[in-house]
Amino acid sequence: MRWRDMLRTVCWLLCCAPLSAAQDLVGLYLEWERDPTTTMVVNWVDLYPESSNTLLWRKEGASEWSTATAAHSVVAPSSLQRRQAHLTGLEADTRYEFAIGKAPDAKTQPLVFRTMPKDLSTRGLRFVNGGDTMATRERFEAMNRCSTALDPDFVLFGGDLAYEDGVKVSRVVAWLEAWTRTSVAKDRRVIPLVVGIGNHEVRGHFQGKVPHDAPYYYGLHVHENWRAYRALDFGSYLSLVLLDTNHTAPIEGEQTAWLASAMEQRANQQFLFPVYHYPAYGTTKAPKDLGPLDAPLSIAIRKHWVPLWEQHGISAAFEHDHHNWKRSHRIRAGQRDDANGLLYLGDGSWGVLPRKVPENGTAWWLAKAEAKNHLWCVDLRANGTATIRALDVEGQVFDTVELATARTQPKRSE
Ligand SMILES: [Fe+2]
């Protein structure tokens, strides 16, 4: 019996071997640099300078493979090897099979990626948001499984991924391995990532030099000209505006000027979500004898960025860093405005130990808050409405907010 049990265990391990083990990869992840309706960036990381730079890909159902040559870089100061294959000119809302190095044998079903729809007329779009992802690998993987079960089009992380502080490469490896083995949906589809920067991607946490102080963020993820702030436009129906809350770029100055221009250029985009790490309307980290809103970074965000969002209109802002769950009241010009205020959703508690939220009645800006691990699941529809749900690690929905319009009404605050 004992031998039979051992044999069964060995068979189980072989059948369930994670992808990373099967292909000797540390990580495999999908990102976007340009329009997700027609492009894809396939990234893979391993330990070997001499391994293949070739990506094979084909539309699902096609018999012939196309090949692409990935850019190869060393993720210094580690010896991790990253390959990055940029695919362009793809068809919208289409499944593509892909493989690394060589075509899989006939018995192996290849992995799949899917481009985003051209518009929302044929189907809605679902994405998941969270941040502060990995205190321990176990917590990270547990919430990843909850996210993957929702079958989202992509996952949007607002910083503080591996808690590597620009230094601890072993945590980067653990994060990549964990993500790789928990981000494949039931139909072999690898769920893409959109990743913002947080303090724990940076040596010293704030005012880091690029790329020196954030080598793993800039070495592993898509960025634009060595800036972590950028906009990602999904056709004309969605823009994600990723921002850097003083980790490697100051809030005021160049970044704010860029944001002003980015908001102006995206006045006609249907949905628009700013995404950033440190919150404007947080739940903890109050300076001594003061409240969370008195933190200098929060003040700077409210001074420089919030007026631009109020002026142009947003769908909701995703905030992180405080390791709690919160939904703000609708806020405009520094006070509650139920009719046309902005909604702030946070506060980054994917896979970390939750902290403590303000006592009931002591934080005017909070509609609800709990010290709780969670993710946000966002469903966008063609008619400009959206449903945003908060789920716990068991997959239970514990809060729902409906957007009646895609963005708040553009209006210059007084
Ligand atoms: Fe943080």
Q: How would you explain this protein's 3D organization?
A:
Residues 7-22 have low confidence and may be disordered. This protein has helices at 2-15, 19-23, 137-149, 169-182, 215-220, 254-265, 296-304, 306-312, and strands at residues 27-31, 40-46, 54-59, 66-69, 71-74, 81-87, 95-100, 111-114, 125-130, 154-157, 193-195, 230-234, 238-242, 271-275, 317-318, 325-328, 331-332, 335-336, 344-346, 366-370, 375-380, 386-391, 397-403. The termini are far apart. The strands form six sheets. It has a six-stranded mixed beta sheet, with helices on one face. The chain has 414 residues and is an alpha+beta fold. Helix 3 (137-149) packs parallel to helix 4. The chain has two domains: 15-32 and 44-114, Immunoglobulin-like (Sandwich), CATH 2.60.40; 125-403, Metallo-dependent phosphatases (Purple Acid Phosphatase, chain A, domain 2). It is globular. It is built from eight helices and 23 strands. Helices cover 19% and strands 26% of the residues. Bound molecules: fe (ii) ion. Fe (ii) ion (FE2) binds at residues 132, 160, 198-200, 277, 321.
List its salient traits:
single chain; 414 residues; alpha+beta; Immunoglobulin-like; Purple Acid Phosphatase, chain A, domain 2; 2 domains; 6-stranded mixed beta sheet; 19% helix; 26% strand
Question: Strand-residue fraction?
Answer: 25-35%
Give the CATH superfamily of the largest domain.
Answer: Metallo-dependent phosphatases
Proper CATH architecture of the largest domain: 4-Layer Sandwich
Mean pLDDT: 94
Looking at CATH, which topology of the largest domain would you report?
Answer: Purple Acid Phosphatase, chain A, domain 2
| DSSP helical segment count | 8
The figure for the number of domains is 2
- Sheet bearing the most strands, described? 6 strands, mixed
Distance between the termini: 78 Å
By oligomeric state, this entry counts as single chain
In which order are the strands of the major sheet placed?
Answer: 11-10-9-21-22-23
Helix content: 10-25%
Which spans of ≥5 residues are poorly predicted at pLDDT below 50?
Answer: 7-22
Tell me, briefly, the overall form. globular
Radius of gyration: 21 Å
The CATH class of the largest domain turns out to be Alpha Beta
Backbone structural class: alpha+beta
